[in-house]
Amino acid sequence: MKVVARKCVDEFIRTHPDGKSSIESWYYEALNSSWKTSMDIKQRYASASFLAKNYVVFNIKGNSYRLVTKIAYKSGLVYIKWLGTHAEYDKKEFP
Description:
CATH class: Alpha Beta
Helix content: 25-40%
CATH superfamily: RelE-like
Strand order of the largest sheet: 1-5-4-3-2
Shape: globular
Structural class: alpha+beta
Number of strands: 5
Number of helices: 4
Number of domains: 1
CATH topology: YaeB-like fold
């Protein structure tokens, strides 16, 4: 997969250094994956949540943080839409 918006990950690491190893681990796993369907993701990330319009929410660092992505399975793209604390996520609205 190609992950779009690495800048978002870098900004997150600057403000939440305790989440660095977890988000980087997810990032490099995603780069080396070839997700064709949501089931491919669910096999590796059992706690991932699937929303409308191919949005997928990943729990990062034991659910301390949330990563919201939009996945274009056919083109192999993962767009990072948002990354932050679980509390911040609860105040957001996604499709």
